[in-house]
Amino acid sequence: CGGKKEEEKTVIHIGTNAEFPPFEYLEDGKITGFDMDLIKEIAKESQLEIKIEDMSFDGLLPALQSKKVDVVIAGMTANEERKKAVNFTSPYYTASQVIVVKEGDSSINSFDDLKGKKVGVMLGFTGDLVVSEIEGVNIERYNAAYAGIMSLQSGKVDAVVLDSEPAKNYVEKNEGLAIAKADAAEEEYAIAVRKEDKELLLKLENGLKTVKDNGTYEELLKKYF
Ligand code: GLN
Predict the structure, then answer these.
(1) Mean pLDDT across the stretch 25-49?
(2) Cα of 69 from ligand 1 centre, angstroms
């Protein structure tokens, strides 16, 4: 009878792990970063309302499967293993695994040189998978990148394997560290949804395409890198 109905937007819960600068990190207690801006822009394009939930990286895919969150964006590499469990959008960033060492350490120039060394990785990160494949490495697993970096600084481990951009970020902000000149393993970041959420995947995919086509994506790259 003529009354306008407010169009209600469904709230989509976004899972991330805000310890991965510049993709997601805390600034004055707020979750910010490239991924956060990207998902906000995509949501705007797709008429979705979002709510961001911060949790351990390791808990992200279980939270997605158990419907605690609907989308995961966390600098997450779309690897074959994960593709078995969830669906990914097209990649939005190409990254690589690098080796962080103590400044002046010239003994590590390749992933093979990690043999016989104590190497810090983050539990469940792709860096963990890369290092686990090298025989004879003494692996120390941490829950967050910062803990691994601290351990390297204090000499508890000889190296830390981590994604290139956060690695650069940590090396800039913490004294006495460097990135080894080793060939890096490339990988691609994408946004994850549950297998059955085909419609949501399509919305995110279209939103991502629009954001890339209209120049917003370029602006975000400039802002964060
Ligand atoms: N890209 C790595 C992975 O997918 C690390 C991601 C992260 O720590 N946020 O495992």
Answers:
(1) 96
(2) 17
